[in-house]
Amino acid sequence: MEPVYIEAYKSGLLQEKTAKAREILSSCTLCPRDCRVDRFSKERGICKTGQYAQISSYQPHFGEEDVLVGKGGSGTIFFTNCNLLCNFCQNYDISHLGYGEEMTDEQISNMMLYLQNKGCHNINFVTPTHVVPQILSALIPAIEKGLNIPLVYNTGSYDNVSTLKLLKGVIDIYMPDFKFMDKAKSELTMNAPDYPEVAKKAIKEMYRQVGDLIIDESGIALRGLLIRHLVMPGDAEGTRQIMRFIANEISSNSFVNIMPQYRPAGEARKIKQFAFPLSNVEYENALEIAWEEGIIRLDKPWYLRKY
């Protein structure tokens, strides 16, 4: 299965999308924060990013889902800064403190090709929402130099549908993390009370574009939607609502990763409910909830594969 962006490049559609995306930077409305700053000047919005994307690291990553990692790893490119800014972020130094360096299109393009040449099964854009124009710009020279592996859009789900539509026919695998279904918790942790509604609309659009996850005979994801859910302490009801939404409004065949790795990073210890790590019991309960709500394509560690 050829990555979808190859045809978009050949038809000229990718070039058109890139130009439209870059126009948005002059009064930025890429994400729901709607900052409307001119990122070509010295103005900065919530994401603190100008016309050049900042990158903290890039490497073959073996800690992602099995269907992304395989034998060669997932080729992760970690973008600095973020539009969501969860106060419990495990990459706080990158997302909040801005650890990273500005990179040109050519440099990002070369990173993609390096990761492909290292044997990675995909290019995994981590925290890409605020740098969609830069990703599209860098993709063009990468294709011209031979890039031909799937692209993964690894997001916190705070994405405008209008921006996602620019990625139709470009992104092969969408990987949103749907964290909360509660407005108050979203406001408390992300200053984004609209997060649940934004995430639902965004994930529906992602599914509309790529459908259920397609996995090849060797167990590697080629195309489709892979939904993550970071289980939060004391939020079993939120997990149930999210699983019910996925089963009823996305697809009961959705591939879902119930993630147990929450820990009180960043400023999380200031919030009583989230000041402690997730317990094993809470995680196992989250897996049970997913099954009860009809989600059975679960990515789980081997020691919890009891079904």
Summarize the structure.
The chain is α/β, with parallel strands linked by helices.
Report the CATH C-level class.
Alpha Beta
CATH architecture assignment: Alpha-Beta Barrel
Low-confidence stretches: none
The CATH topology corresponds to TIM Barrel
How many E strands?
10
Query: Which radius of gyration do the C-alpha atoms yield?
Result: 18 Å
DSSP strand content: 15-25%
Q: What profile does the largest beta sheet have?
A: 10 strands, mixed
DSSP summary: helix tally: 11
The CATH superfamily name is Aldolase class I
Distance from first to last alpha carbon? 31 Å
Helix content: 25-40%
What number is the mean pLDDT?
96
Structural class: alpha/beta
| SSE pattern, N- to C-terminal | HHEHEHEHEHEHEHHEEHEHE
Inertia-based shape: globular
Estimate nothing, just give the exact number of structural domains.
1
Notes on the structure:
- The protein is α/β, with parallel strands linked by helices and 307 residues long.
- The chain has one domain (4-304): Aldolase class I (TIM Barrel, Alpha-Beta Barrel), CATH 3.20.20.
- The protein is 36% helix and 17% strand.
- The chain is built from 11 helices and 10 strands.
- The protein has helices spanning 4-11, 13-24, 66-69, 92-95, 105-117, 132-144, 161-166, 183-190, 195-210, 236-250, 280-292, and strands at residues 53-61, 74-79, 101-103, 123-126, 151-155, 173-176, 214-215, 221-230, 255-259, 297-299.
- Strands 1, 2, 3, 4, 5, 6, 7, 8, 9 and 10 form a 10-stranded mixed sheet that branches.
- Helix 10 (236-250) links the parallel strand 8 and strand 9 (255-259).
- The two termini are 31 Å apart.
- The model has no long low-confidence stretch (mean pLDDT 96).
